[in-house]
Design goal:
alpha+beta, six-stranded mixed β-sheet, globular
Length: 144
C-alpha cells in the first residue's frame, strides 16, 4: 500500500528527478537490497524505492532499512530508520519504499541505504548490523 501511494503521489506531482542510492550490506545480512532508487517529485520529500531479497531459506517476520544522508563533502547529516517491513518469504523479493522525511535533502546530498536488522519468523532473536562505517566508506569511494 505504501509503495502504491508513493508511486501515485509522484505520478500526480510529476517526477522531476531520479538517481540511484548507494547500497551497503553487512557480510552476513539475511536481506539484500537491489535497485535502490531515489525518486524526487516537484513537491514533497524524496522517496527511496528498493527491492529487498531474502537470502535465506527461512521466512523473515520483519526487517528494517536504514538510510544515511551525507552532504556533498561526505559529512553525515542524518540517519533514518524505516518502519519495520513485514513478512519476506524465503528466497523471495518484494519492493518497498522509504520516505526521506527525517531532515531536508539537498540535490547534492548522497543517500546510502542498507538493512540493519531482521527477525526470522517464529524467533525472538534479531540479527543486527551497524552500517554507519560502511556507509561512510561508500561515500568516500563515490568522491571524484
Amino acid at each position: 500500500m505504501t509503495l502504491l501511494f508513493a508511486v501515485l503521489t509522484l505520478s500526480v506531482a510529476g517526477t522531476t528527478g531520479e538517481k540511484p542510492a548507494i547500497v551497503v550490506q553487512a557480510a552476513d545480512s539475511p536481506v539484500r537490497l537491489d535497485r535502490a532508487t531515489i525518486l524526487s517529485g516537484a513537491d514533497g520529500q524524496p522517496i527511496v524505492l528498493y527491492a529487498a531479497t531474502n537470502l535465506t531459506d527461512d521466512q523473515l517476520d520483519q526487517f528494517t532499512v536504514m538510510a544515511f544522508v551525507f552532504d556533498e563533502k561526505g559529512t553525515l547529516k542524518a540517519r533514518q530508520v524505516a518502519p519495520g517491513r513485514r513478512t519476506l518469504d524465503a528466497r523471495s523479493t518484494k519492493y518497498s519504499t522509504l520516505v526521506l522525511d527525517g531532515s531536508p535533502i539537498d540535490a547534492t546530498d548522497v543517500i546510502v541505504v542498507g538493512v540493519n536488522q531482521s527477525q526470522r519468523a517464529g524467533s525472538e532473536v534479531w540479527w543486527r548490523a551497524d552500517l554507519q562505517t560502511a556507509a561512510e566508506a561508500a561515500t568516500q569511494r563515490k568522491k571524484p
